[in-house]
TrEMBL record:
<dbReference type="Pfam" id="PF01757">
    <property type="entry name" value="Acyl_transf_3"/>
</dbReference>
<keyword id="KW-0808">Transferase</keyword>
<feature type="transmembrane region" description="Helical">
    <location>
        <begin position="180"/>
        <end position="201"/>
    </location>
</feature>
<feature type="transmembrane region" description="Helical">
    <location>
        <begin position="126"/>
        <end position="146"/>
    </location>
</feature>
<feature type="transmembrane region" description="Helical">
    <location>
        <begin position="302"/>
        <end position="324"/>
    </location>
</feature>
<feature type="transmembrane region" description="Helical">
    <location>
        <begin position="239"/>
        <end position="258"/>
    </location>
</feature>
<keyword id="KW-1133">Transmembrane helix</keyword>
<dbReference type="GO" id="GO:0016020">
    <property type="term" value="C:membrane"/>
</dbReference>
<feature type="domain" description="Acyltransferase 3">
    <location>
        <begin position="11"/>
        <end position="316"/>
    </location>
</feature>
<feature type="transmembrane region" description="Helical">
    <location>
        <begin position="263"/>
        <end position="282"/>
    </location>
</feature>
<feature type="transmembrane region" description="Helical">
    <location>
        <begin position="208"/>
        <end position="227"/>
    </location>
</feature>
<dbReference type="GO" id="GO:0016747">
    <property type="term" value="F:acyltransferase activity, transferring groups other than amino-acyl groups"/>
</dbReference>
<feature type="transmembrane region" description="Helical">
    <location>
        <begin position="50"/>
        <end position="66"/>
    </location>
</feature>
<feature type="transmembrane region" description="Helical">
    <location>
        <begin position="12"/>
        <end position="30"/>
    </location>
</feature>
<feature type="transmembrane region" description="Helical">
    <location>
        <begin position="153"/>
        <end position="174"/>
    </location>
</feature>
<dbReference type="GO" id="GO:0000271">
    <property type="term" value="P:polysaccharide biosynthetic process"/>
</dbReference>
<dbReference type="InterPro" id="IPR050879">
    <property type="entry name" value="Acyltransferase_3"/>
</dbReference>
Length: 355
């Protein structure tokens, strides 16, 4: 296995590429398409779970390299916003083409912030909900960095997990408050998966310890409990199905930790990983509309329509990745280095759904 940290993380790029493709196939085979196909890839909805585990791993790795909080903040903003803004504008144009009455300046501007829920506005595209989960996690880990608590990240995360579980368990005592908070702070429904990622980082780079293994097991149990407390999986897979998939994702990550996933380092999977952020953001509305137009309007076979939509979304994502995301990151990093004399950490193996 390659010895550099960069190469060791290539498996994560492949994993996020596979997870993104799973989410795409999920969205392209549900609802009216499921009726036409006679089946649906329900399990693809859980792709976000492995995104969150990967994010916990890589974001913790990343923040340990920074010298100042501004380095972390700028690197995250550079990765997220130029691509996100581009994808929002492309999707808004598509929505306007099909449903002009739905698009408004208020909707567009609220979505460009990445936090439309805080303005009482719905997401322009359904997949955007995970971005808020990720951003709140970034703020949480940045706060720990600011209080110089990274060396106690395991203890802090364990306490946070316990508090979150107690909060969920007591929901019957404050139903209105519970519903409001879990909608506005959806990290509360997924935090154990991020914690698992941090623990896997510890296992891989700090050495084996039974306490990490035990805590990973407890994180899985916590994720089992949270199945019907939020997220989207509860609407498509059963409690048992979701739990088995969560166990599978943790086993896959364990194989990564011990160096048994190098077979995933293949050009097609690395390519999917590279474009996964744009693919994730662009596919749902645009792809499902394209499938409908091809199948209903042109009488194209549903399987062929889905394949065409997948190919189109991949091509569009390639364009956004290499003509917006990569140049924007390079430009922002160059500006930051010139202004502050510090080089931002490379984020090519950012590892999250949303890098």
């Amino acid at each position: 296995m390659p010895t550099t940290q960069q190469n060791r993380l290539l498996e994560l790029d492949s994993l996020r590429g596979l997870a993104a493709l799973g989410v795409v196939v999920f969205h392209f085979t549900i609802n009216e398409n499921a009726d036409k196909l006679g089946w649906e890839f329900r399990y693809g909805v859980t792709g976000v779970d492995i995104f969150f585990i990967i994010s916990g791993f890589v974001i913790f790795l990343t923040i340990q390299k920074v010298k100042k909080w501004q380095d972390f903040a700028v690197s995250r903003l550079a990765r997220l916003y130029p691509t996100f803004w581009t994808c929002v504008l492309i999707t808004a144009a598509c929505v306007y083409w099909y449903e002009p009455e739905y698009v408004s300046w208020k909707l567009l501007l609220a979505n460009l912030t990445m936090f439309p829920v805080y303005f009482g506005i719905e997401n322009l595209d359904g997949v955007y909900w995970t971005l808020l989960v990720e951003m709140i996690f970034y703020l949480w880990i940045l706060a720990i960095f600011l209080i110089r608590g990274l060396d106690k990240i395991v203890t802090i995360s364990a306490v946070c997990t316990a508090v979150i579980l107690l909060f969920h368990m007591g929901r019957n005592f404050y139903p209105d408050f519970y519903g409001y908070i879990t909608w506005k702070v959806q990290l509360l429904n997924h935090f154990p998966l991020f914690f698992s990622g941090i623990l896997f980082y510890k296992l891989k780079f700090k050495g084996f310890a039974w306490r990490y293994v035990g805590l990973i097991f407890l994180c899985m149990l916590a994720a089992f409990y949270l199945h019907d407390k939020g997220g989207r999986s509860m609407y498509h897979v059963t409690w048992l199905e979701h739990n088995l998939i969560i166990v599978f994702y943790h086993l896959v990550f364990f194989l990564f930790v011990v160096g048994r996933l190098t077979f995933l380092i293949a050009p097609p999977l690395l390519f999917l990983g590279k474009i996964s952020y744009s693919l994730y953001l662009l596919h749902q509305y645009i792809g499902t509309r394209l499938i409908h137009s091809l199948n209903t309007g042109l009488n194209m076979n549903i399987y062929l329509a889905i394949l065409v939509a997948i190919g189109f979304c991949i091509a569009l994502s390639y364009g956004v990745t290499y003509y917006v995301e990569v140049p924007a990151i390079r430009a922002i990093k160059g500006w930051y280095k010139a202004r502050h004399g510090r080089k931002l950490e490379e984020q090519d193996t950012a590892g999250a759904a949303l890098p």
